[in-house]
């Protein structure tokens, strides 16, 4: 599996040889935000227009799983990512810190399930010649479990409006993140 990237210093170097004066443009909003304990969501991350009259906000996050084989060696990269262009808040002026915390915990749940998938992938031996359907079945179950957890979270907290249940979920999610620390991205 090959990952290609262009470091910022290389992009700067390439533009400095064009002969044109360097122009500073405002930084573009990231297409996706990778989960990080040091980078909580802010309301400015929610860029989309509301798509429902029923909700005050919506977090669009997913588990991005990439796999491959190099010299018949299986490797995987699993990340929890947030998509600003699909996430929204209905009324920013009325958006509370409690609502933002509720949305952050949706993203945290995504990270929990990304860690669980990393854990499973570290325990199984996948044959590179027969990667499918084994990997497909493994990820299908991981995604179904994650989706059920997300639905249960919203149901039990009434989308964050039930403060005692919201607090209980907050504690549970933090405990689960700590329990799965060994499977966090370094």
Automatic annotation (TrEMBL):
Keywords of this entry: Signal
Record's signal peptide: 1-22
InterPro entries for this protein: DUF922
Pfam families referenced in this protein's UniProt entry, alphabetically: DUF922
Superkingdom per UniProt: Bacteria
Protein name: DUF922 domain-containing protein
Annotated source species: Hymenobacter swuensis DY53
Higher taxonomy: Bacteria, Pseudomonadati, Bacteroidota, Cytophagia, Cytophagales
């Amino acid at each position: 599996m090959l990952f290609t990237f262009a470091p910022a210093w290389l992009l700067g170097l390439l533009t400095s040889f064009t002969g044109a004066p360097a122009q500073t443009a405002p930084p573009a909003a990231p297409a996706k935000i990778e989960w990080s304990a040091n980078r909580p969501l802010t309301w400015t991350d929610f860029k989309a227009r509301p798509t429902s009259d029923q909700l005050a906000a919506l977090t669009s996050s997913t588990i991005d799983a990439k796999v491959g084989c190099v010299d018949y060696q299986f490797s995987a990269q699993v990340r929890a990512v947030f998509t600003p262009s699909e996430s929204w808040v209905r009324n920013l002026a009325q958006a509370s810190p409690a609502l933002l915390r509720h949305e952050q915990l949706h993203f945290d749940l995504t990270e929990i399930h990304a860690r669980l998938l990393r854990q499973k992938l570290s325990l199984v031996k996948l044959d590179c010649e027969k990667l499918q359907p084994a990997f497909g079945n493994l990820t299908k179950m991981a995604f179904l479990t994650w989706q059920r957890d997300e639905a249960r979270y919203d149901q039990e907290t009434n989308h964050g409006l039930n403060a005692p249940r919201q607090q209980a979920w907050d504690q549970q999610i933090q405990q689960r993140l700590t329990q799965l620390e060994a499977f966090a991205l370094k």
